[in-house]
Design a protein that fits this description.
Blueprint (H helix, E strand, L loop, with lengths): L2 H30 L2 E3 L8 H11 L2 E11 L8 E5 L7 E3 L3 E9 L2 E3 L8 H10 L3 E9 L4 E6 L5 E3 L3 E8 L6 E2 L8 H9 L5 E7 L9 E5 L5 E2 L5 E6 L7 E2 L5
Parallel strand pairs: 2-5, 7-10, 12-15
Antiparallel strand pairs: 1-4, 3-5, 6-9, 8-10, 11-14, 12-16, 13-15
Length: 251
């Protein structure tokens, strides 16, 4: 390859490089002349945010309907913006930045739990950005929440723990299950009902040598603890076995 050819190649390379450099420079000037970095408006008063956007040639859209609670940003200052600040992308002049202002710290009132069950009260606390504290239960003729600490209508911050005193029905008295085997159902049932116990299920079964109406099996068994909350089941003799199940009359 002769010297003249090398000279032509070198000249062509220089021309291509110069063209690429020139294109990049002019493109950068053109693009940067119409874009700006996204400003950080978080924490700034609304008037200051408007001034910053005006200087940069962008629009500011303040949502008049929505506000965001914040423990760190004063009421009336910008609490949220879109596009977010610090993004690497640029924003075009004439574009719009949408913002929402702070309403200040979240302030709540302890609800009135009168008549509510303990479970319902806990759900309401969670729904209202509060949290349950100590839950204490006491036997009481009045069921449900009896008191709250802090008391109802107290102004509190979000996630404040609220302790509850909940009244619950006292447990029914406990008895020792008697031996019902070989005794007539007609005598046993009134005796049990006099102590608040109810025979919930009666099944009939043929049993040779035993007259009708005699209890041949029972549950709970003799000696087991039993209360009004516990169902009592007995199997009673009958000459002909049937699938009949006698249920106690409804209230």
């Amino acid at each position: 390859m002769n010297r003249g050819c090398l000279t032509n190649i070198a000249f062509a390379v220089v021309v291509v490089f110069a063209f690429a450099l020139s294109t990049y420079v002019w493109f950068s000037i053109f693009v940067r002349g119409k874009t700006v970095s996204t400003p950080n408006l978080i924490g700034k008063p609304a008037d200051d945010a408007k001034a910053i956007c005006s200087d940069l040639g962008v629009n500011l859209d303040i949502d008049p309907q929505r506000r965001r609670s914040s423990d760190k940003i004063a009421a009336g200052n910008v609490a949220w913006q879109n596009p977010a600040p610090g993004t690497t992308s640029l924003i075009k002049r004439g574009a719009t930045i949408r913002v929402e202002l702070s309403s200040g710290p979240l302030v709540l009132r302890v609800p009135d739990f009168s008549g509510a069950s303990g479970r319902t009260a806990v759900l309401r606390l969670e729904q209202q950005s509060l949290k349950p504290g100590y839950i204490s239960e006491v036997d009481s003729a009045t069921q449900g929440v009896l008191a709250a600490d802090p008391p109802k209508d107290t102004v509190v911050n979000g996630q404040t723990p609220v302790s509850l005193l909940v009244g619950t029905a006292p447990p029914p008295p406990q008895f020792v299950m008697p031996d019902l085997i070989d005794r007539p159902l007609d005598e046993v049932r009134p005796y049990l009902e006099a102590h608040g116990l109810v025979v919930s299920t009666v099944k009939f079964e043929a049993y040779p040598g035993i007259r009708d109406g005699i209890i041949i099996r029972q549950f709970p068994l003799r000696g087991a603890p039993v209360s009004a909350r516990d169902p009592i089941t007995v199997v009673v003799s009958r000459q002909e076995e049937t699938a009949i199940v006698e249920q106690p009359p409804g209230p």
